[in-house]
Amino acid sequence: MTEISPSRQRALVILLRVLGGLSLSAIGAVFIPHAWMNAIHRTIGLGDLPDLPVVEYLSRSLSLFYAWLAIVPIYASLDVPRHLGLIRLFALSGLLVGVIQTIIDVTAPLPLWWTVAEGAFLFLYFGALWVLSRSSAGG
C-alpha cells in the first residue's frame, strides 16, 4: 500500500468529512413541505417548482440518496490508509461525474451561475481529493 504523509491524511480526513456533512444535510429536504421547496426554488431564481408527483419524488429521492451517500466519505475518513484505494476511486469517479454533471447542467439548461458553481466545486473538490490521495513521493 502506498504511504501518504500525515499532513495529507489530515487534509483527506477534513475533505471527506466536509463532503459527508454536506451530503448528510440533504436529509432535511426529504421531509420539508413542498411549499418550502418552492420558496427556495423561487429564491434562487428558478421560478415556481412544479407541484407534480414526479418532481416531488425526484426531489425527495435525490435528497435521500445524497444523505445516504454520506456514509462513504465519512467511513473512509475513519481510516484513510486502509481506505486509500476507495478514496482514489471515489476521486476519479467524482471527476467523471463532474464532466457528466456539467453536460447535464448545460443541456438542462440551468443558469450559468449554477453550472459554473457546481462544476467548479466538483472539479476542485475531487481534484484535491485525487492529488492528496497520491503518495507523497508522487506515486
Quick description:
With 139 residues, the protein is mainly alpha-helical. It has 7 helices and no strands. The model has no long low-confidence stretch (mean pLDDT 94).
Could you name the ranges where pLDDT drops below 50 across 5 or more consecutive residues? none
Name the shape in a single word: elongated
Alpha-carbon distance between the two ends: 11 Å
How large a portion of the residues is in β-strands, by DSSP E?
under 5%
Percent helix, as a range, is over 70%
Count of DSSP strands: 0
What radius of gyration results from the CA coordinates? 17 Å
Overall pLDDT level: 94
Specify the biggest β-sheet: none
Order of helices and strands: HHHHHHH
Number of helices: 7
What structural category do the secondary elements indicate?
Answer: mainly alpha
Please give the domain count: 1
Q: What's the multimeric state?
A: single chain
List the helices and strands and how they pair.
Blueprint: H1 6-24, H2 27-31, H3 34-43, H4 53-69, H5 71-77, H6 84-107, H7 112-133
Helix pairs in contact: 1-4, 1-5, 1-7, 6-7
Describe the structure.
The chain has 139 residues and is an all-alpha fold. The protein has one domain. Helices cover 75% and strands 0% of the residues. The chain has helices at residues 6-24, 27-31, 34-43, 53-69, 71-77, 84-107, 112-133. α1 runs antiparallel to α5 (71-77), α1 (6-24) packs antiparallel against α7 (112-133) and α6 packs antiparallel against α7 (112-133). The model has no long low-confidence stretch (mean pLDDT 94).
